[in-house]
Model the fold of this input.
Amino acid sequence: MITLSIDAMGGDFGLDATVPAALDIIDRHPQIGLILVGDARRIEARLAAAGARRRRRLEVVNAEQVVGMDEAPATALRKKKNSSMRVAINLVKDGRADACVSSGNTGALLATARFVLKTIPGIDRPAICASLPRMDGHTYVLDLGANVDSPPAILLQFGLMGSLLINCLEGVANPSVGLLNIGVEDIKGNDTIKAAAQLFKRSSLNYVGYIEANDIYAGNTDLVVCDGFVGNVALKATEGAAQMIMGAIGEEFTRNAATRGAGLLAKPVLASIRRRLDHRRYNGASLLGLKGSVVKSHGAADATGFRYAVEVGIKEVNKNLVSNIENALTDLPDSDTLPA
Done:
């Protein structure tokens, strides 16, 4: 049986999101066990309210502290050793859990996971990787916020890890990889991007060249690589645009009696569009490069969104993602031997 540890207290909604999501996962996946980490008294009360029959394959581990969403990573690492986040990650290190899922403070999660689990040999920095929707499926993008300033050698490591993730999780033998840039011409971009392009061209990756932001959603590149600053902006812009579009559609179809009638006729189509643009379906980002599986959920995720993040963790464990990346990167050259 696969077991995941859940930072039950993390995120903007805490137990309001994590406990319902956990119960949903238990109902959907007969071979999955969950360990809910946090204020045991409050967690037990939520589970009791849901009914004792739903306690199967659920364990509660007490953690007395909570990492605040605005807390400095260094502070969380030094002073919150009994936080729900830290304990949940410790369970992965100790072998009691196969993966950890948290909606908590991104910086604290990265710092804690890196300190507790360590990085895979050959990897200097973990990266956040997730999928974003496109017309005919989805595109993986990394880094989405772990590293705001990444030199060319680190971007190459991101490309290798992301390619291995797609190969492992999606079964794509030779994923196409592009570098996010302000244009597709060779003369475009800053010195870092240009130097990274040279490394990508000499690597074993199926490198297709520069990718513009619109190609994330309209193109056919499997993986787009960028530094965390740019990647996080792209991610948040995607979520905001999707919410704005759905809000505008809703306003127009409720403007008057005629548009409300049209809305009723178009209801099946609108439901389909809403589902395709629902950013919750793409919640759950992999922290690649660690000696253990850690999934970061959006801090503002509700129960549905958090459930999708847990699904990502289940898929990673089922596909042995961490072992596959570790084995494939055995001969990765040290970043010190590559151009900065």
About this structure: The chain has a mean pLDDT of 88. The CA atoms of residues 152 and 192 lie 6 Å apart. The chain is about 45% helix and 15% strand. The longest strand covers residues 127-134.
